[in-house]
Amino acid sequence: MHSLSFDVSHTLAGGLVLISFMMLYQDRLYSLLNVFALHALVLAFSVAWQAYIQNAPHLYVTAAIALVFKAIVIPVALHRIVQQLGIHRDIESAVGIGPTMLAGMGLVALSMVLMLRVTADADPLAREDLAFALSVVLLGLLVMVTRRNAVSQVVGFMSLENGLVLAATGAKGMPLVVEISVAFSILIAFIVIGIFLFRIRERFDSVDVSALDDFRGERR
Amino acid sequence: MVVISDIVVQGVQMLLVLLLAPLLTGFVRKIKARLVRRKGASVFQPYRDLLRLLRKEVVLAENASWLFRVTPYVTFAAIWVAAALVPTFATGLLFNWTADLIAIVALLGSARFFLALAGMDVGTSFGGIGSSREVMIAALAEPAMLLIFFCLALVAGSTQLSTVANVMASSYVGLRVSLGMALIALIMVALAENARIPVDNPATHLELTMVHEAMVLEYSGRHLAMIEFGAFLKLLLYISLIACVFLPWKIAVFGTGPLSYAIGAGAYLVKLAAAGFLLALFETATAKMRVFRVPQFLGAALMLGLLGTLLLFVSRSF
After folding, report:
1. What is the ipTM of this complex?
2. For B94, which of B6, B63, B218, B304 could close a Cys bridge (C-beta 3.0–4.6 Å)?
């Protein structure tokens, strides 16, 4: 009745959604970064498993990119940025953890309903992958929306991109060039964001983005 | 003849949970003591405690109502019935037609309801604070537990515990991320409901943190013995629930003869010992959290249960 390959990919993709929830739950910056590294690690495993069952060797490259850049380089770099900036290590969230979790559940349910309706006659594996990927993307957006700290917004952005990679690998026949260019543009975006972080910090003595609102004269 | 053997097996099961429950608690305490390099009391100390309490005189507050005197027995009976419904060493026992997961939740819930009422009955401030905290924990733990059971019921196609255990023991169920989440959530709920360490620590009497102890502070003598015994039974119940749903290896199927029952009982003892050891290990490794963090902890369990149920809908077949 069941096949092991489906179950393993289901477990890995479901684990990715779960780790997105763990990101929503964290209230310390360092542990958020560690959870993000775990997210990328699980993504790398998931992509490698897809490469194995789809017999698509180029996906191994994607997995390696995810492993090296997202699971090692970016978290280490973010750790160093946080250290250098001397940021306050509690995360100020705009909404409390409980409502955020509930909103996350709603988003997951929404993406399931949407994807199951839209892709009724697709391959079950791709279907399930797309549903999970959409929920990872939405949860990444939720992390960006609910956090005030710029570093955690960067983490939300990166996890959103992980969801995109998951969707891309679930669909068969994604060319390698596209994936590499996506990964590369993310890296560039990361560097730009890093520079911006230093600029924001220089000007406002904090990375709380609500300072930007004050600067524009938009009092909350 | 069949009926008699049914009654005998079910009776053995009810006696087994009654006899093993204090031993399990004693075992956990012993392991905990050994892990922090203390000698610890004997494994049989909980039995001696119960006997000592039974021999002692009951001291009642002047304004205690009948509710206060009835509650220990009601609580104990409800928990014992619930523990008798959970298959420990064999499925398909005599009471199994009522062994519905929701019925077990309802039995535990009514036990807690009476305990919370009795905590407020005498009118001391400690009882009130304990009851309000216990209800706060229960208000989150119970929906989480129901969601976990919905998830299990969707996989197994039934809320009847024997059927669930048999389905889980068959090779029909593969690797499921939903089941993993349900397992973690159930462990979290079990820790909260049994007043184990990250949520509550019944070994201390610190008014800032006590939940369960504050509620039963007014009890003494045989009433306290009943309540303590109920707590021991509840721990055993949760462990056997987890064991029979998630680790149903070697559990005897109904009517397969005494040999398989014996094997099932042996496997059950091994599972209990392993679970007790893991519990003690976990409790020595973690610190107690603040009372106001408990809702977040249980919210995570609730979320895991809900997520597991949702994820079932994208798996190919449920």
Report:
1. 0.72
2. B6
